[in-house]
Design brief:
Blueprint (H helix, E strand, L loop, with lengths): L1 E2 L8 E6 L2 E6 L10 H16 L5 E6 L37 H19 L5 E5 L2 E3 L1 H7 L3 E5 L3 E3 L15 H4 L2 H10 L3 E2 H6 L5 E3 L4 H12 L4 H17 L2 H23 L8 H7 L3 H15 L1
Helix pairs in contact: 1-2
Length: 301
């Protein structure tokens, strides 16, 4: 099955294998950058999986080379100015002035949706390959487990925009505080092996075996009783919240939007002049940049 938005191609694919629902982001041409259309399609797919009593486990995947390059800040499908049928009780953002525009929108589509998906009463597994950057982290972090390829990498580079991390601020729970500071201060890519060492990933595998290994884990979990899985998930999520996860996230979200408004007042742009291409360029490893400079010098010579 597929999930469609109006008459556009399916931005999210949905299928069930045995007792496992596989929800797949389907914008590979844009490295699965997440616009609102994809957000609402993901939500619909997750609800379909929750409503199906035969589904015991949900796997979140990304089609193509990369899991997700983050939020859509520059593709032709960017739909920040469009109205959608909202799932929370936040009002429509489209006609709101100043900082209220993004604050209302991101309460709904970013913070609200991620918290909603974190509380799905069935185990969820992120199946990650390639880039898992910024908003892509949010999608992986809401899942109960992350199984990833050895060539996957992780980054939250939005400090370059003057913004203290993505909206679903789970950094200090996914990583210890000192590593979280490094992760954000530098904004550089963290490779899979280090992410595993830091406890952010459950398992690192090859691209060739990613689906097989993920479904193996999912099917083993599916043998457990549904209520037992739900109660266990609820206990652990509540324990995280008692350790301050939700409170920290609320504080970070407010500072995030102060930064957006500051950017707009100072430069006239909420994202401090960054689009998807510029942010991707900033993520290139230093070695790659040095080689590009050498190649440029040779060409000019």
């Amino acid at each position: 099955m597929t999930e469609k938005t109006n008459d556009s191609p399916a931005v999210v694919l949905y299928e069930v294998r045995d007792q496992v629902a596989i929800v797949t982001m389907n914008r590979p041409e844009y490295n699965n950058a997440q616009n609102s259309a994809m957000t609402y399609a993901l939500d619909a797919a997750f609800k379909q999986a929750v409503d199906d009593d035969n589904v015991k486990v949900i796997v979140l995947a990304g089609k193509g080379k990369h899991f997700s390059a983050g939020h859509d800040i520059g593709t032709p499908g960017r739909d920040v100015d469009q109205t959608f049928d909202r799932k929370h009780l936040w009002y429509d953002h489209v006609n709101k002035p100043g900082g209220e525009f993004l604050y209302a929108r991101e309460q709904e589509v970013y913070l609200g949706m991620c918290r909603r998906w974190r509380d799905i009463p069935k185990p969820t597994i992120a199946m990650v390959q390639g880039a898992c950057v910024a908003g892509g982290l949010m999608l992986a972090w809401v899942c109960d487990m992350i199984i990833a390829t050895d060539d996957s990498f992780y980054a939250d580079p939005v400090v370059r925009m003057g913004i203290p991390g993505v909206e679903y601020f789970a950094h200090v729970h996914e990583l210890n505080p000192r590593i979280a500071k490094e992760f954000l201060f530098l904004g550089e890519r963290m490779p899979a092996d280090r992410a595993y060492q830091m406890g952010m990933l459950n398992k690192v595998v090859t691209r060739e075996t990613l689906e097989e290994d993920t479904l193996d884990v999912a099917n083993r979990i599916a043998k457990m009783p549904r209520l037992g899985l739900q109660l266990t998930k609820q206990v652990i999520n509540n324990a995280e919240d008692l350790m301050g996860k939700r409170t920290t996230m609320d504080m970070a979200f407010g500072l995030h939007h102060f930064a957006h408004t500051h950017n707009e007042m100072v430069s006239g742009d909420r994202l401090a002049g960054f689009d998807g291409k510029a942010m991707a360029e900033s993520q290139r490893p230093t070695a790659d940049k040095k080689q590009q400079e050498k190649d440029k010098e040779k060409t000019e010579a």
